[in-house]
Write a structure and sequence with these properties.
It is built from one helix and five strands; from the N terminus they run E-E-E-E-H-E. The chain is of the alpha+beta class. The radius of gyration is 12 Å and the shape is globular.
């Protein structure tokens, strides 16, 4: 089985575009978003990758994110 430690996203918001990593927290095995462009760690913690991506979908529905895409 392949372990995914970091997923990278290019996120377009109404005012800018940022590179965001979804990283696993070693302390409690949850996931957090890290905005690499702004050097900001989101305080939100997610139990799974699916939960984290669902949160981005929610932000997209609310208009806070225009789009996001997986990147290398």
């Amino acid at each position: 089985m392949v372990s995914i430690d970091v997923l990278k996203f290019l996120v377009t918001r109404p005012k800018d575009t940022v590179l965001v990593y979804l990283m696993k927290n070693e302390s409690d095995n949850t996931y957090s978003f890290v905005n690499i462009t702004r050097w900001h760690i989101c305080p939100c913690r997610f139990q799974s990758i699916r939960d984290a991506v669902s949160d981005m979908d929610r932000l997209k529905e609310e208009g806070k994110i225009i789009r996001y895409e997986f990147t290398n």
